[in-house]
Design goal:
Helix content: 10-25%
CATH architecture of the largest domain: Beta Barrel
Number of strands: 42
Shape: globular
Number of helices: 18
Largest sheet: 16 strands, antiparallel
Radius of gyration: 39 Å
Strand order of the largest sheet: 25-26-27-28-29-30-31-32-33-34-35-36-37-38-39-42
CATH class of the largest domain: Mainly Beta
CATH superfamily of the largest domain: membrane protein fhac: a member of the omp85/tpsb transporter family
CATH topology of the largest domain: Porin
Length: about 1000
């Protein structure tokens, strides 16, 4: 009879102790051939990993040591919680059976139920403490439940309950956890219990917490952040009263279940009053609070006082007191008060007037100055320059490091300081002396240990190249590059070592890189979870990792970014399952939390500027008048429409200047091409873009956008719209043909190249745009014209904080196939013409006031002339040039700008000229110029902009001060007083307030 043998191992560490017993029990089977190997249940390892981990084979003799090795290796894979090995006779052989208990891994955490923030669902899920892809143990659920319960209690939800649910999925041995939260009602604070040496009244302390609404004395609801902010508020109040060493301890929160009230129990030790003073130099209280961190940290210790001395020293050095000394001392507490004195010895005041560099033979001086802290005095900023001994030493180190990084290992940099430079007391000059020494060069580079990747791929793009400068920095760069290549190619345990030695030639080296590749890991499969409404086909299109591919963390995170770029997921978690397990084929996990599908945005604002609605009572403000326009906006978006990742948006805007409604349908990744989107738009826009008229536009368009690179993309658009001119201010001029609606069908291309470092506030780079359009009867248009609008802007860092920016715009509209009865210059519909002027174009004009104006010219050849009004009519050509010098003005957040604008809107291309003078009151085809000063205040959304412009040569024109009805009465030769021309002009001064840089 055969005798079954059961061998069970609970942990790999027990293998050594268990091995003798195993050998003794298998003595009966030792050496007998294995006739069968069975698994119960089927192993969850990939076949290749199983073959490597389990050394037993049918037909080979059974060895107890090999059984022990199999158990050890299979446990090391991390995919089993328990392994039992059973052996039984079968004829002359033995059958070995592995009884396996698979391990489970976290596949995702979901939070259900009504969860009113705080805490939000993300906080609840994070408090559960589970990490995607890591091993799961049943006992962790209880701990997670308790942790979430504590989070609810901390936020006043004492009646809240948490019910966990565990769902197991055999696909990838995953466990999905759902925590259903029932929050209950939130408790409120009540009068806290205050003990200790407070020195302040209880009412003052309670007011500082913010736990009770002032005046009405209602207690607020309990939240964790409100509790912490309340403690911080108490400390802040004590700090304002100079109790900088105050201690506030929240001992506990007593909950009254019957009344649902929470009583905070506080113990306060106010400590002594601490006075901080300066001796030897006067420093305002405001600056002391800024530079001495004791105030901000609301604590007093040696480190903070030393930091305060250092900050004060930097401040005085920025004021020109380069030899300033700052020390501090404190007096013992007397009568409940302690004094801290900063002893300041300013010394003489200096001015750094010159910084020279000698011996620099390899770099441009500008390259070195960009890395230097020393800055000569400027006219507006750094009035005394920036200098200190620490800065000088730091500059020596920076220049040395730069030279050494380029092969000059023996480079030495020293500096000298000249006092009373050129005999002027207080002026100093610094000269940096660079002694580069010889440049070391790479003679030979050997890369050893590369076996599984092409050696050419590993060597490509290395910084250490034969014949090029040698440096430790280049070797460190090569190390990062090679390891990144190996990690992204599935070698997580790759290591790198570098060494060098001098070669036969002086100052030449040989470099050796030794690579240890380790085992390569592969993608077993990609598993997604958490999807509810999104179509799986959309998910699959984004995943570029496939089973059998090398396991690349770089690709893994790139896919995660692509999912975020879709804009339909609130959270995308990714992980490698069982990251520490000794298996070469691993699952890649993506767990999704879909974003809210509906978004509603309401906006209220206003515009103030020189504009105004067309008036039925007066035509006197042809150059615009100051007006006020309240504005209301509404946006409703539906994300992930039909589960395809598409977005439907309804948008509305209502103001005195514009009434707009639009419907947009956006389909990203059109035809599954990355960076290609298609948008369908329906638009109704009733807009007062200029004071001359209002336009109503009913439009449908289809647009394809394509990103060709990070800096270059294009838009291709077909638009069909119906333009209607309304509220016409010049009825004689515009009747009849300009009042007739026009259908315009336009095919356009926008090419955009954006290499600015920061589009909201650029300091360097280039920005080019080109809009090219064609409207014609062959597209369904009633008007035939082509349109080109070009823009080129460049930005240059003149110094560290000074930027020179320039922009040039050129545009032309060319009509063709003009029918009889139309003048070519007046054939283009008014809404399609160029209008310019204002804060973002030519600051010599109010909004849209540039270019040709109504001069009462005949509408048709040989027709009667109408009375002039002087209102802007737009034009068919445009040229604008803007120059700006942007520099620090007041502190780090306020920037000054000197600008010059030049340009105009012209009747057509043939009338474009660079002439700077206006010939007469009917000539508007000349270059108008403006110069001015502006201020930019830096904010997180871009700079707030204020500009004051002086127009050097504003246009004059003949206007009309009567009413539109009186204008109709004015015929050629009329002597009525209201028909007499009135000379007007655009104001020399223009003022603008807006957000963002001009360009």
């Amino acid at each position: 009879m055969s005798k079954p043998l059961a061998v069970r191992l609970w942990a790999p560490c027990a293998l050594i102790a268990f091995a003798p017993a195993l050998l003794g029990q298998t003595s009966e089977y030792e050496g007998r051939n294995i006739v069968g190997i069975q698994y119960s249940p089927a192993p969850t390892l990939a076949p290749a990993d199983l073959a490597r981990a389990q050394p037993l084979h049918v037909g080979e003799p059974l060895q107890a040591s090999e059984v022990a090795a199999a158990i050890d290796s299979m446990f090391a894979t991390g995919r089993f919680e328990d392994i039992q090995v059973q052996a039984e006779s079968s004829g002359n052989g033995v059958i070995v059976r592995f009884v396996l208990t698979p391990a489970w891994f976290v596949g995702g955490v979901n939070v259900e139920g009504k969860v009113a923030s705080p805490p939000n669902r993300g906080q609840v899920a994070a408090n559960a403490g589970f990490t995607l892809g890591t091993p799961f143990h049943d006992e962790d659920v209880k701990q997670a439940q308790e942790s979430i319960q504590k989070l609810l209690v901390a936020n006043g939800l004492y009646d809240g309950t948490v019910r966990p649910e565990v769902e197991r999925d055999n696909d990838g041995q995953q466990v999905f956890l759902t925590f259903t939260v029932h929050e209950g009602k939130r408790a409120k604070y009540e009068m806290p219990s205050i003990s200790g040496d407070t020195k302040l009244s209880d009412n003052t302390i309670v007011r500082a917490t913010g736990w009770r609404l002032r005046f009405i004395n209602w207690w607020r609801q309990v939240t964790d952040s409100r509790t912490r902010n309340g403690i911080a508020g108490i400390l802040n109040t004590y700090g304002k009263k100079d109790y900088l060493a105050a201690k506030v301890e929240l001992q506990k929160l007593d909950y009254d279940e019957q009344h649902r009230r929470v009583k905070p129990v506080l113990n306060i030790k106010a400590g002594p009053k601490i006075k901080i003073r300066t001796q030897g130099a006067k420093v305002s209280k405001r600056k002391l609070k800024k530079y001495v961190p004791v105030y901000e940290e609301e604590a007093v210790d040696r480190d903070l006082l030393v930091e305060g001395a250092r900050n004060l020293r930097d401040y005085f050095q920025s004021q020109g007191y380069y030899d300033v000394g700052v020390e501090w001392r404190h007096t013992p507490v007397q009568n409940g008060e302690m004094t801290i004195d900063y002893i300041i010895e300013r010394g003489s005041r200096y001015k750094l007037v010159k910084v020279d560099i000698e011996g620099n033979t390899y770099f441009k001086d500008e390259d070195l100055r960009e890395r230097m802290f020393l800055t000569p005095a400027g006219f507006i900023t750094e009035r005394h320059g920036r200098y200190s001994e620490a800065f000088r030493k730091k500059d020596e180190q920076n220049i040395t490091a730069l030279y050494q990084a380029n092969g000059f290992h023996d480079c030495k940099v020293t500096s000298t300081v000249i006092h009373d430079y050129k005999g002027k007391p207080g002026d100093i000059a610094v000269t940096m002396h660079v002694a580069p020494g010889p440049q070391w060069v790479v003679d030979n580079l050997a890369i050893n240990g590369v076996r599984q990747l092409p050696k050419e791929q590993v060597a490509a793009g290395l910084s250490s190249i034969v014949g090029q400068p040698f440096s430790d920095v280049n070797m460190a760069t090569d190390r990062n590059q090679i390891l990144t290549l190996y990690y992204s190619s599935g070698f997580p345990k790759a290591t790198f070592q570098a060494a060098w030695r001098p070669s036969d030639a002086p100052h030449h080296v040989n470099i050796v890189y030794n690579v240890t590749e380790g085992d390569r890991q592969y993608v077993r499969d990609v598993i997604t979870s958490g999807i509810k409404t999104t179509r799986q086909s959309l998910i699959d299109r984004q995943i570029t990792l496939n089973a059998g591919d090398p396991l690349s963390p770089v690709k893994e995170t790139d896919i995660q970014k692509a999912f975020y770029d879709l804009g339909i997921f609130a959270r995308v978690d990714t992980a490698i399952q069982n990251p520490d397990g000794a298996e070469d084929h691993k699952y890649v996990l993506y767990n999704f939390e879909e974003a809210n599908r509906y978004h509603l945005t309401l906006g209220v604002g206003a515009q103030i500027g020189r504009f105004g609605t067309p008036s039925s009572t007066s035509l006197a403000s042809a150059a615009g008048s100051t007006g006020f326009s309240p504005e209301f906006s509404l946006n409703v978006s539906r994300l992930n429409f039909l589960g395809l990742g598409h977005v439907v948006t309804l948008r509305g805007n209502y103001s005195n200047l514009q009434k707009l409604a639009s419907f947009d349908y956006l389909a990203p990744r059109f035809r599954n091409v990355d960076g290609r989107n298609i948008t369908f738009t329906l638009l109704y826009d009733n807009e007062l873009s200029v004071q001359t008229f209002a336009s109503r536009r009913e439009q449908a368009s289809i647009q394809i956008s394509q990103n060709f690179s990070k800096s270059f993309h294009a838009l291709f658009r077909y638009t069909y719209r119906r333009d209607t001119v309304q509220n016409v201010i010049i009825p004689v001029l515009l009747v009849p043909q300009f009042l007739a609606p026009d259908n315009v069908a336009l095919v356009e291309t926008d090419l955009i190249q954006d290499r600015r470092d920061n589009p909201a506030d650029p300091h360097r780079g280039i920005w080019n745009t080109a809009n090219i359009g064609l409207a014609g009867r062959f597209f369904g248009s009633q008007r035939n014209f082509s349109k080109v609008l070009l823009r080129n802007a460049t930005y240059y860092n003149i110094t560290r904080n000074t930027v020179f920016a320039r922009q040039t715009q050129f545009g032309v509209i060319s009509p063709f196939s003009v029918p009889a009865g139309y003048l070519p210059s007046q054939y283009i519909p008014l809404p399609e013409r160029f209008f310019s002027g204002g804060a973002d174009s030519i600051r010599a004009f109010p909004f849209n006031q540039a270019g040709p104006r109504d001069i009462g010219a005949p509408l048709t050849p040989g027709g009667p002339a109408s009375a002039p009004t002087g209102f802007p009519l737009g034009g068919n050509a445009l040229f604008i040039n803007n120059l700006e010098w942007r520099f620090p003005f007041m502190g780090p957040n306020i920037q000054g700008v000197l600008f010059h604008d030049m340009g105009n809107v012209f009747t057509d291309l043939s009338h474009m000229t660079f002439r700077f003078t206006q010939r007469n009151d009917q000539d508007f085809n000349y270059m108008v110029q403006a110069a001015g000063f502006g201020i930019r205040y830096r904010t997180p959304v871009g700079p707030i902009r204020v500009d004051l412009a002086y127009s050097i040569n504003p246009p004059s024109f003949v206007g009309f001060k009567g009413t539109p009805f009186e204008l109709l009465q004015c015929t050629p030769g009329s002597t009525a007083s209201f028909c007499q021309p009135v000379h007007q002009s655009v104001s020399h001064f223009q003022f603008f307030f807006s957000i963002g840089q001009t360009f």
